[in-house]
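Discussion board: Methods & Data

I've been asked by a reviewer to show the raw model output for two of the constructs in my manuscript, not just the figures. I'm not sure how much to include, so I'm pasting the format here to get opinions. Each protein appears as its amino acid sequence followed by a line of discrete structure tokens. Is this the kind of thing reviewers expect to see in a supplement, or should I convert it first? Here is construct A:
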Amino acid sequence: MEITGDETRAAWAIASRKYEDEYADLLEEARTVELLPAEVAALGELVAGADVVHPMSGHGLDDLALARLGARSVLGLDYSDAALTSAQRRADALGLPCRYTQAVMPESGLDSGCADLVYTGKGALIWVADLPEFFAEVHRLLRPGGSFYVYEAHPLVPLWAWDEDEIRVRRDRGYFEPSHVNDSFPANGAVERQHTLSQIVMACRRAGFEIEHLEEHPEPFWRSGGVSAAAWDGRVPNTFSLLARRT
């Protein structure tokens, strides 16, 4: 994970205990976890036999899903010891070819050209302070012709209030603001980075990628428990997916 700022680091140190505290529940989920249908459709045959690197891997459940789709190996990178340790325990318990190492992106510490596929998202890019540096590192990790895939919260998501009766834009957020304080997870003063969709796309292109797929989706990848927000009813974007090839 790319973490900047003392408050953000402290917030994630607290929040990451969740992965250890909920180990048993996450292990049960891990036994049958799958990528989202949109992810499977976009990735197609790219996963089978691939060496995959997953920056900001978090709880690691997506890594297990990638292994079940036929990845030869999956290497998860994260800042949190708690996340890495619990993810490795689950992978070992299920006998899947996933391994984990600590890294503060964009300095992965990995060899150039070590991956056929770099996969990330679902709450990753909001912690990336410097998109050009991040995409340059992803490009370096990939072999020629390798692919980079992101399934991520849409940049508009921080603007949506969680009102149930109507879609509303929060008065304390702006689409073109550089950052805002997270008040959901991990909270505790963590500062998210705000990137527009065009900034993400152009940073990817400038790093040397050819974009092969870009799609916006109405479904959120995460919903707060007990909340049924009007912004989740299919009328506004909540996620996007991007597939790019290293040229």
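Construct B, same format:
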Amino acid sequence: MKERIRDYVLGLGIEDVGFAAASDYQSPKSPIIDSLFPGAKSMVVMVFKELSACESPSPQLAMNARLDLMEYSRSANYRVGRFIEREFNSPVMTVPTSYPMDFSSREKAGTGEVSLRHAAVAAGLGAFGRHNLVVHPRFGTRVIFSAILTKLPLASDPPVENSPCTDCGICVKACPGGALNVPGQTDMMKCIMNSQPYGLRTNIKFWMRFGEASPDERKAMLQSPEYMSIYQAGFIGFQYACFRCYSQCPVCVTPSIGT
């Protein structure tokens, strides 16, 4: 079964795929798999490589490449899920690459139902680096993951024994928000302030100021670049404007733009 699924996934042009038994998946913050999908026995985890656009000094181009990748990975996830249900007559659940998330409490905000990083490690697709991202042995840091939960009894692939991360600290120095200063931790709020400058936090602050502003001030606010960016983000979704931990990591770096 694993080889048939692997061949199908790689045949779609997806960079890599791994398998993990649900019992081998361990995430400190996410729910246990059985609570999300009773009877789930395994996970199919896929690897999608970032384009070199993450190096672009234009946040619009870098952001667009990420949006393209998210759309592509979601489509591929669905296609693989359909393949497994059709070929093996086994129910599946697809795991979102990022959003939607559960914002019902502060503790859950920012935590996925399934941690794709921990799923990737359990499936032998990499190891955690100093930046708390998973470093793939061939593609380095510049990857995102998607996953499918299934009731098929698929054994875990061998783990990566040695982390590709060299612990050089370049990612720590490159982070503009200082979100990686504590080893083994990512300060989410420091990261979000830089990576999502027009996200929920900025939106709330804008409208709080708007409520206290005079009519003339409100008119100016609604014509400001800040509001235009917030307005655009409301249509596009959560926009990432910082890729420094991706673009600066020297492990398996792809050729730079223009070379």
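Answer (T.O., handling editor elsewhere):
This is acceptable in a supplement if you add a one-line summary per construct. For B, something like: Residues 59-88 form the longest helix (30 residues).
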